[in-house]
Write a structure and sequence with these properties.
The chain is about 20% helix and about 35% strand. The protein is an alpha+beta fold. The strands form 6 sheets. Strands 19, 20, 21, 22, 23, 29, 31, 33, 34, 35 and 36 form an 11-stranded mixed sheet that branches. Strands 8, 9, 10, 12, 13, 14, 15, 17 and 18 form a 9-stranded antiparallel sheet that branches.
């Protein structure tokens, strides 16, 4: 059978997963009662809730007798490790660009990887039904970006399609819209090269993804580089350290639609799954038993942000979670490193682990997954990972793009200047302005919330790692201190009411608190110890205003990302399956002075 292997790459929210939905709907013959859900490829709960793709996943469709393997990739740079390893499985890429926004920072990041690997791009201008769409301009911007990233002449001679992915339409000519995607499929068959296939050579496949089945154990995914493999055959698993393990393939699978299909034989050029290879890791090679030869190991960019993970030690530890000890935490982190290639874990002490990742979002998704699984954990503030280059301390910097209404631009530029940001480009776009900055990564911790309130929710920001630059000096990103509980007990509405003018609260009345727990944000710079467990003294004297209802300002609800952005270096976030609490590292107020 003939194959085409393509990846779909784009900035977050430009419509990759929706485009895959359209491709599946138009090529799958569904059985009775079957239907394709919206964003069908976003299979885990967190992806559905947040509307983002976190894990790279593959599917396949058949068109005109050719099998097209499609890999849906994440748009967030924090999940760049997923993107880097799956691009090696494909021969071409659909580069999706929003018809109004144009190429954004994450488009640049993924496109750079695709161009380095020599993949053939097809540019798809999506959302051309938007009122502010500017398709011709966006195509020119994409061409400029590819030229800047060093694309060769063949890559720069890219074909262009216009799409409304949500309605399942894609066509070549703006003046002749079509009702389906047949022109997209035709173009993939014509433009994307078929994989070079040698079925008689010794078998070879690089493990690029892992999955797990309760019945079959570990499943390895990858593209067969050469040769073929039958069910029940023995292979050599070639480890990164050069050792080899003889192992048997219990069941090979190929993909069609959202299903894995059991087959007796798989061959070169296809993206397949193999069950039965138990101790495989990402980046290792499954090779022929008689003539094993290793493929190059996948290299992934270094992490830029780290956090310290510890088991929960607060007075409420063990009340809500199932897994509370350092042994549980150690086992869970070791398991995560097996599949999450861009994550690194170091054991500082038996009950303290330094976990490094691509960014705050990368680490917060791991924390959110762990608390849903029943873990209790406490983590410190995110820190950037610095490097020593020629004896000078360097730190990671980000390329930041903000898109704001014109009347908010000066405020935002002023705040970013105060955070050591350097403006590199500014261009008006109608009533909005697009500004680009180079800014230290640590300056963006906690900035998103402030940015949204400054622009009244109208601003769009996205940023991407842009290399290392000399240390920019001290930064002050947080203006306010914390309100810290000085008593154990239950919070009363009466005491919260009396303290309201001192700051904003994170807790509700009748919530349990402990000494050292952060209950709110102070209106001033310093921390302040408060007693929220004091109730009104009851007397038998009645006066006219004695029983007036207390009007409380609703508390600030902090999400996990908000909490990680808020805390300073002497504070921790305590996570349990039911709660997110903030606390001081040292709980006793007299020891904190």
């Amino acid at each position: 059978m003939e194959y085409r292997n393509i990846a779909i790459i784009a900035h977050v929210d430009h419509g990759k997963t929706t485009l895959v939905d359209g491709m599946l709907k138009q090529t799958l013959k569904l059985g009775h009662g079957e239907e394709i859900a919206e964003r069908a490829m976003d299979s885990n709960d967190l992806e559905k809730e947040r509307g983002i793709t976190i894990l790279a996943k593959n599917t396949a469709v058949e068109y005109g007798g050719v099998k097209i393997n499609i890999v849906d990739t994440p748009g967030h740079a924090d999940f760049g490790g997923e993107v880097e390893r799956v691009l090696g499985m494909v021969d071409g890429a659909l580069v999706l660009v929003d018809a109004a926004e144009g190429p954004m920072p994450q488009t640049r990041f993924v496109l750079r990887k695709a161009i380095e690997l020599g993949l053939k791009p097809i540019v798809v201008v999506n959302k051309i039904d938007r009122g502010d769409a500017r398709p011709e301009e966006v195509v020119n911007l994409t061409f400029d970006l590819m030229a800047e990233l060093g694309a060769n002449d063949d890559q720069l001679d890219f074909p262009i399609l216009y799409a409304v992915a949500r309605e399942g339409k894609a066509y070549r000519d703006l003046d002749q819209p079509q009702d389906d995607m047949h022109e997209l499929f035709d173009m993939v068959l014509k433009e994307i090269p078929a994989p070079k296939v040698d079925l008689d050579a010794p078998f070879q496949m690089l493990v690029t993804n892992l999955d797990y089945s309760e019945y079959l154990g570990r499943i390895v995914l990858g593209r067969v580089q050469r040769g073929k493999l039958r069910k029940g055959e023995f292979v050599q698993l070639m480890h990164k350290d050069g050792t080899m393990t003889k192992t048997r393939v219990v069941q090979p699978f190929t993909h069609l639609g959202l299903r894995r299909i059991e087959v007796d034989e798989v061959g070169a050029g296809d993206i397949v799954a193999l069950a039965g290879i138990e101790d495989a890791q990402i980046g290792e090679t499954v090779a022929d038993l008689a003539d094993p030869e290793a493929l190059p190991i996948i290299t992934v960019d270094e992490p830029t942000v780290s956090m310290v993970f510890q088991p929960n030690t607060s007075p409420f530890a063990g009340k809500e979670g199932k897994y509370v000890t350092s042994r549980h935490l150690n086992d869970r982190l070791k398991r995560e490193v097996m599949t999450n290639v861009s994550l690194k874990v170091e054991e500082i002490r038996p009950d303290e682990f330094k976990v490094s990742g691509r960014g705050e979002l990368h680490l917060s998704i791991l924390l959110e997954t762990m608390r849903r699984e029943g873990y209790e954990v406490q983590v410190g503030a995110p820190q950037v990972i610095t490097r020593e280059i020629d004896g000078v301390k360097h730190e990671p910097v980000e390329h930041l793009v903000i898109d704001v209404p014109e009347y908010h631009s000066s405020t935002v530029i002023g705040v970013l200047g105060g955070r050591k940001g350097q403006m590199v480009n500014m261009e008006p776009q109608g009533s909005r302005v697009r500004v680009e900055f180079k800014i230290p990564s640590r300056a963006l911790f906690g900035f998103r919330t402030q940015f949204l309130s400054m622009t009244q929710g109208e601003g769009i920001m996205s940023h991407i790692f842009d290399g290392y630059a000399p240390w920019a000096g001290d930064l002050k990103t947080r203006q306010n201190g914390s309100l810290v509980s000085m008593e154990d007990g239950v919070a009363f509405a009466y005491s919260i009411f009396k303290l309201q003018d001192r700051g904003s609260f994170f807790i509700d009345p009748s919530q349990d608190v402990y000494v050292g727990m952060i209950v709110g944000e102070n209106a001033r710079e310093q921390d302040m110890n408060v007693n929220v467990c004091k109730n009104k003294k009851l007397t038998n004297v009645r006066s006219a205003g004695a029983d007036e209802a207390l009007t409380l300002t609703p508390p600030k609800r902090l999400s996990l990302e908000d909490a990680l952005e808020y805390i300073s270096d002497d504070e921790l976030v305590e996570l349990t399956p039911q709660s997110i609490r903030l606390r001081k590292k040292v709980l006793n107020p007299s020891f904190r002075k």
